[in-house]
């Protein structure tokens, strides 16, 4: 009797401490409630919509580059696939998506900077990261002509940081992606080794 009691207690402890594995589909279902952020995205390249979250799944159709889509939910960091609602229901790889540019961000490229302006336009494809490091957490890829807002410090100087042979510039995510992201991110603005005289950012008017 005493042995059965001890076995019962041991079983309860094992159940309480066992790391439960949550299936991929359960994780996808749990994130669908996050509807406070914008669901608009655009494809960076020609890409298929899959029937299931796997590249080995059946391809429903092929979307051309720069096609706008609507997400079924906001994917968590590290998710390789996300379900979309339109133009066709299915799954798409997160790596091929970029944020839609809002009309609030639309500004014209200008040859001279506006004093005190934080608006900048992307010149060539660049990765937006959470930290000023090539090992920083990935946020998204910014394509040419995308508009972002840098953070300025005293004297209207762009907040920057030198690391790993790059000059990093801090991006205000709340202003750059209103309703979608918050906090700050970083991009490698200048490659000090290969292209020390070039910048990935241009001024807006």
Describe this structure in words.
Helix content is about 15%, strand content about 35%. The chain is mostly beta strands and about 200 residues long. The strands form 6 sheets. The chain has a 5-stranded antiparallel sheet, with no helix packed on it. It has a 3-stranded antiparallel sheet with strand order 11-8-17. Strands 14-15-16 form a 3-stranded antiparallel sheet. A hairpin with an 8-residue loop joins strand 9 (about 125-130) and strand 10 (about 140). It is elongated.
Short overview:
Helix content is 13%, strand content 35%. By secondary structure, the protein is mainly β.
Strand content is 35-45%
Report the uncertain regions. Answer: 3-36, 104-114
Placed side by side, the strands forming the largest sheet appear as: 6-5-4-1-7
Shape: elongated
Q: Number of helical runs?
A: 3
Distance between the termini: 83 Å
State mean pLDDT (0 to 100 scale): 75
Instruction: Classify the oligomer.
Output: single chain
* Helical coverage, percent range: 10-25%
Rg measurement, Å: 22 Å
Number of strands: 17
Question: What about the largest sheet?
Answer: 5 strands, antiparallel
**SSE order:** HHEEEEEEEEEEEEEEEHEE
Helix/strand structural class: mainly beta
